């Protein structure tokens, strides 16, 4: 195993990037290896952050090739997050702007919702405060309610529970989901049902091939959402389509 990994790494380090087919041809001049076995080695080396995927069947050993995803929040979302934080200073709040989903989608759809995640025991208080402040707000709606009653192209606020140990980052003092959380939440949340199925697999493929994603963080959060097997299998399928 070590000799095979070393041969792959030597090949990779002498190139900016390489294709699966070219590596396979190279290795077959040195060792006897099948495409299935090589796919397994590459998958493990990507998982261990030794190699990085640039695209379908394209790899590099240079981590800087991957772009860090920088979350965005429009001013309305930032302002709302600050108002909630000021009104409820002792609760943890995460703000997600539905407009950013267009960056990942294959079939574009306009999402102007703002998603506010708070600790479960604070959800109703935040929801009622939003209503009192004249926001159009919905409290943790299921997918049937979303399809029947919510036009995601219009501005509104969805209040939902914040899962403990969620991967978050900050924009101007406001917590917002990291890319690992976004990927899992799209898969798991009822209010994201319109992005489930093939669209989610496209989003996963696009994000994994475009941005630097911490797989350990992704899988840890997926486990907290009871989606570890689904996410793990989807990642394996990406890595075997070389």
- In total, the number of strands is 9
Instruction: Quote the distance from N terminus to C terminus.
Output: 21 Å
Helix fraction by DSSP (H/I, runs of at least 4): 40-55%
The structural domain count equals 2
Strand content: 15-25%
InterPro entries: DUF6577
Features:
three-stranded antiparallel beta sheet, elongated, 9 strands, Arc Repressor Mutant, subunit A, four-stranded mixed beta sheet, 10 helices, 242 residues, DUF6577
Descriptive report:
By secondary structure, this protein is an alpha/beta fold. The chain has two domains: 2-66, Arc Repressor Mutant, subunit A; 75-236, no CATH class. It has ten helices and nine strands. It has helices at residues 2-13, 20-28, 35-47, 75-87, 123-132, 143-149, 179-188, 198-210, 215-224, 228-240; strands at residues 18-19, 52-55, 58-60, 93-97, 113-118, 137-139, 156-161, 168-171, 174-177. The chain has a four-stranded mixed β-sheet, with helices on one face. Strands 1-3-2 form a three-stranded antiparallel β-sheet. It has a two-stranded antiparallel sheet with strand order 8-9. A hairpin with a 2-residue loop joins β2 (52-55) and β3 (58-60). The longest helix is centred in the N-terminal third of the chain and has 13 residues, at 35-47. The mean pLDDT is 91.
Outline:
It holds the Pfam family DUF6577. This protein is α/β, with parallel strands linked by helices and 242 residues long. It has ten helices and nine strands.
Itemize the secondary structure elements and their pairings.
Layout: H1 2-13, E1 18-19, H2 20-28, H3 35-47, E2 52-55, E3 58-60, H4 75-87, E4 93-97, E5 113-118, H5 123-132, E6 137-139, H6 143-149, E7 156-161, E8 168-171, E9 174-177, H7 179-188, H8 198-210, H9 215-224, H10 228-240
Parallel strand pairs: 5-7, 6-7
Antiparallel strand pairs: 1-3, 2-3, 4-5, 8-9
């Amino acid at each position: 195993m070590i000799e095979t990994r070393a041969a792959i790494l030597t090949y990779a380090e002498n190139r900016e990037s390489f294709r699966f087919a070219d590596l396979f041809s190279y290795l077959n001049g040195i060792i006897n290896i099948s495409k299935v076995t090589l796919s397994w080695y590459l998958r493990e080396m990507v998982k261990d952050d030794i190699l990085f995927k640039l695209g379908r069947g394209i790899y590099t050993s240079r981590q800087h090739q991957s772009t860090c995803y920088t979350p965005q929040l429009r001013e309305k979302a930032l302002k709302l997050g600050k108002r909630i934080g000021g009104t409820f200073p002792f609760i943890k709040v995460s703000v997600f702007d539905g407009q950013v989903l267009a960056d990942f989608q294959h079939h574009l759809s306009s999402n102007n919702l703002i998603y506010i995640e708070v600790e479960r025991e604070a959800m109703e208080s935040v929801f009622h405060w939003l209503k009192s402040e004249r926001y159009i707000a919905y409290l943790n709606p299921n997918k049937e309610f979303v399809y029947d009653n919510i036009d995601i192209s219009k501005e509104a606020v969805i209040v939902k529970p914040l899962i403990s140990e969620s991967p978050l980052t900050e924009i101007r003092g406001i917590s917002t989901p990291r890319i690992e959380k976004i990927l899992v939440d799209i898969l798991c949340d009822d209010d994201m049902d319109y992005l489930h199925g093939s669209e989610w697999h496209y989003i996963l493929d696009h994000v994994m091939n475009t941005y630097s994603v911490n797989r350990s963080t992704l899988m840890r959060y997926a486990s907290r959402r009871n989606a570890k097997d689904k996410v793990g299998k989807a990642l394996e399928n990406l890595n075997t389509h070389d």
